[in-house]
Each structure stands twice: as C-alpha cells, then as structure tokens.
UniProtKB/TrEMBL annotation:
Gene3D superfamilies: Ribonuclease H-like superfamily/Ribonuclease H. It holds the Pfam family DDE_3. InterPro entries: RNaseH_sf, Tc1-like_DDE_dom. This is Transposase. It comes from Streptomyces polyasparticus.
Amino acid sequence: MAAGGSTAAALDAWIVFEDEAGFSMTPPIARTWARRGCTPVIRVRGRSRRRVSIAALTCYKPGQRSRLIYRPRRDDGRRDGRKSFAWSDYRDLLQVAHQQLGGPIVLVWDNLNVHLDARLRSWIAGRDWLTVHQLPSYAPDLNPVGVWGLLRRGWLSNVAFTSPDHLIQTVRRGLRTIQYRSDLIDGCLTGTGLSLSLTTPRVQAQ
C-alpha cells in the first residue's frame, strides 16, 4: 500500500479498489427473531441458475467524501452465455469512474485473469490518468470492497426472491443506499487495516 499511497499523493489522485461478486436467487441466511421452537422457513422458487454479478469500485481521497461506483451484469441463464465481466466491461467502468471522480486514479485490484488481459493492459497503458497496482495473490483481506458483506447481511438476507428482476432491484437498492453512506464505505477500508494518511515526505538537511 505504501507504493500506491505515495503515487496517489504525488498525483493528487483517488485511490480506487475494485472487486466483483455474484448473487443468486438463493438468499443468504441471517439470524432473525422467531417464536421459540418455530424455526423460520424461507421458500424459494427452485434453484434458479440466474444470477447478477456486480463489479464495484470503492474510491478514497483525503479531504473528499468516499465514493462507491458499480456496474451490474445480469446472467441470462443460458449455458453458453458469458457469466463474468469481459475486459471491455472493466474499461467502461473505469471510464465512468474517471468522469465521476474528475481526477487521476490509482487503481488497486487482484490478479483476476481478465484484469491481466492484454487488451485491457494496452488500454490502461494509453491512459495517463490511470495507474494500476496489483494486490498480492491470495490476499482478499487487503481489498476493502466489503460492500458485499453489507448486502448479504442486510438487504439480501432472508429474502425470498420471486424473480431475477426482484433480485436485481434489491441489489441495486442496497448499493444505492451505501452510495449515500460514506461512513459505510470508510468502514470497509478500516476493516482491512489500511490507512489513507497520504503525506509527502519532508526532506531534512543533515
């Protein structure tokens, strides 16, 4: 994080973390209230293969309100259809982030094969406003896109989704609420133990 932090300070840039998650029609289970001896039962409409995938960016800059920017991708349920994000989806998401943030971006993400796609790397190389750092392998605890846990414990828990549209609407409603709660976005960063105290080193004569 030190390298990313010094780069961001020098460029007066946003530090942006990216992560993806998928949500299916089967709801996450959370604790709830019930009469003693009466375990609640959530009845769902079979085991639907349809799901929604979300790529999200948590964006931080000292002195600025933290932001959440996301892009959904809906699975049509076909066996031959693409279920994950393509390199062009990440390109479009980063372009939107640059427009919304209005400044340089230092992007931190994992070693997902699509992130390493030659076409995406070529596109990144041509953007002077974008600097990319890879997270170490097998280090998900360093990525503060913890909005997935907020969704699963909150808006999505114990919900009997009636259709893929119902699932997508619920996910969007939760993400929109988080977008207005910068304290929740800040909490995701705090949970990693990382810090945004980006200061320029002082040179002192000996």
